[in-house]
């Protein structure tokens, strides 16, 4: 990566982190731990790769070893998968489910020996995201997050094919202070199943692709609207490509898709070559996981220190309402050219008290499993927010015009404020001189109270008005 490209990628990542628009995806190379040393004395620890230890112990249990070509692979990258595959090859009559239980027991046993996971502790202390995806079945990341955020503020869910449908799979809705962790390849915790080799992992991903939208709509929506930051994954070609495609609504080569960031030190030449050819927005940083955490600390900590004085004078943001006092739902309709501003706006709306934000037919923010039928969504939402801009005004045709027409029709049936037009240009919307928007069937927008959010950042007046709107809705609903 050239120096100019590296600087550009870092700036993009800094902006995404600032907006809480990053989901961290962690693999086995990130699970570097310190365990009790071989000598006496509890204070003595030895650095180790968690999955090197798991692999060694599992192989000893079945009295077999990896071939020399496998043991020379550095680090813990997917060593559990290699060990499990070797056991099934060497040990006749071993069932997959029995091996799965053995592997789960070994993961839990090694976890008991962990004194610390320094890399994960540093990541958790940054508090740089509220969504983490663990591609490994251990709880080292969960423990680090609980230590940094408090156990009561960390929610964990896991997926396994054919699992009990009554058990929760989806992550909870976002709320202030909550950190969510999801295990797409299963978890070693009691009562859970986990993928233990490559074919197993393939089946988990395949089934999740079938069931994910139905069983985990919040998670799928979050993955498809956020940037992904892969840390310590060193994903095999097939798994890397499959997971990235699963996390994207459109194909990887699409020019208008969201960006992903990859924390990698170019170990996987095949996958990196694939990304450079087919994913125009991928950034493969030339750092190890340890180096990347150091870079993250330089990105996040100075911003937090700079923002500290402002928090003392800024009025606190009200958290989202509880289920008993549900905040209103809102449909944000925008031209595709305004997608970035609309996403920033949607993030602000959830913090002001709106319980669910429909951003478009593919992207949800919040907790309700809304239908993907636009007509039904417009008919069910409590408020409708058309995003006004010069770019939208210049569009002769667009899906958003149809959405605005349907919302105006519904507004005639609502005996209260329903339409909340908001301008995102630098000029106040009533002085923006929109020609198409302020004529024809949308001309009545001009007669409504127009809110202002330049580039998606709510003005103080708009923030106060929307917070008051949410409060009034809760009062009327109670």
Description of the structure:
The protein has 478 residues and is of the alpha/beta class. The protein has three domains: 3-30 and 117-301, Rossmann fold, CATH 3.40.50; 37-114, no CATH class; 323-477, Rossmann fold, CATH 3.40.50.10140. The chain contains 17 helices and 16 strands. It has helices at 3-18, 50-61, 68-71, 79-90, 96-113, 118-126, 140-149, 198-215, 217-225, 237-246, 269-278, 289-313, 339-352, 374-380, 390-394, 399-411, 460-477, and strands at residues 22-26, 32-36, 45-49, 114-116, 131-134, 154-158, 179-183, 227-231, 260-264, 282-286, 329-333, 356-360, 363-366, 383-388, 422-423, 451-452. A seven-stranded parallel β-sheet has the order 6-7-5-1-8-9-10, sandwiched between helices. A hairpin with a 2-residue loop joins strand 12 and strand 13 (363-366). The longest helix has 25 residues, at 289-313. The termini are far apart. Residues 303-325 and 361-371 have low confidence and may be disordered.
Structure characteristics:
478 residues; alpha/beta; Rossmann fold; 3 domains; seven-stranded parallel sheet; six-stranded mixed sheet; 17 helices; 16 strands; 15% strand; elongated
Q: What structural class do the secondary elements suggest?
A: alpha/beta
Provide the spatial order of strands within the biggest beta sheet: 6-7-5-1-8-9-10
How many alpha or pi helices? 17
The chain-level mean pLDDT equals 80
Distance N to C terminus: 57 Å
**How is the CATH topology of the largest domain named?**
Rossmann fold
CATH class of the largest domain: Alpha Beta
Indicate the percent of residues in helices: 40-55%
């Amino acid at each position: 990566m050239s120096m100019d490209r590296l600087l550009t990628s870092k700036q993009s990542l800094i902006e995404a982190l600032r907006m809480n628009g990053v989901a961290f995806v962690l693999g086995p190379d990130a699970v570097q731990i310190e365990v009790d040393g071989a000598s006496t004395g509890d204070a003595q620890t030895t650095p180790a790769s968690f999955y090197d230890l798991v692999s060694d112990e599992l192989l000893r249990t079945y009295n077999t070893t990896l071939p020399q070509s496998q043991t020379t692979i550095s680090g813990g990258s997917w060593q559990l998968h290699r060990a499990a595959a070797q056991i099934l090859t060497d040990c006749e009559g071993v069932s997959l489910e029995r091996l799965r239980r053995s592997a789960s027991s070994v993961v839990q046993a090694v976890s008991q020996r962990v004194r610390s996971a320094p890399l994960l502790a540093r990541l958790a202390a940054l508090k740089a995201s509220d969504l983490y995806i663990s591609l490994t079945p251990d709880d080292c990341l969960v423990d680090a997050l609980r230590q940094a955020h408090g156990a009561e503020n960390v929610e964990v869910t896991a997926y396994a094919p054919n699992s009990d449908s009554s058990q929760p799979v989806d992550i909870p809705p976002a709320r202030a202070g909550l950190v969510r962790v999801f295990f797409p390849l299963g978890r070693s915790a009691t009562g859970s199943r986990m993928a233990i080799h490559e074919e197993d992992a393939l089946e988990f991903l395949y089934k999740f692709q079938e069931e994910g939208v139905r069983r985990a709509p919040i998670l799928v929506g979050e993955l498809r609207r956020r940037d992904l930051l892969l840390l310590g994954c060193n994903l095999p070609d097939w798994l890397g490509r499959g997971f990235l495609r699963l996390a994207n609504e459109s194909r990887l080569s699409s020019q208008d898709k969201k960006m992903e960031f990859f924390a990698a030190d170019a170990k996987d030449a095949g996958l990196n070559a694939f990304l450079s050819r087919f994913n125009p927005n991928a950034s493969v940083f030339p750092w190890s996981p340890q180096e990347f955490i150091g870079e993250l600390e330089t990105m996040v900590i100075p911003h937090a220190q700079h923002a500290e004085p402002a928090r003392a004078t800024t009025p606190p943001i009200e958290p989202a309402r509880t289920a008993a006092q549900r905040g209103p739902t809102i449909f944000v309709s925008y031209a595709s050219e305004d997608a970035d501003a609309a996403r920033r706006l949607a993030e602000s709306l959830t913090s002001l008290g709106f319980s669910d934000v429909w951003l478009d037919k593919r992207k949800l923010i919040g907790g309700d499993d809304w239908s993907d039928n636009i007509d039904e969504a417009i008919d069910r939402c409590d408020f409708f927010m058309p995003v006004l801009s010069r770019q939208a005004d210049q569009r002769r045709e667009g899906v958003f015009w149809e959405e605005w027409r349907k919302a105006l029709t519904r507004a005639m049936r609502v005996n209260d404020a329903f339409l909340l037009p908001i301008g995102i240009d630098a000029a106040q919307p009533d002085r923006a001189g929109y020609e198409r928007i302020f004529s024809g069937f949308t001309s009545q927008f001009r007669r409504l109270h127009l809110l202002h959010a330049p580039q998606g950042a709510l003005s103080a007046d708009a923030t106060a008005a929307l917070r008051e709107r949410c409060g009034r809705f809760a009062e009327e609903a109670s």
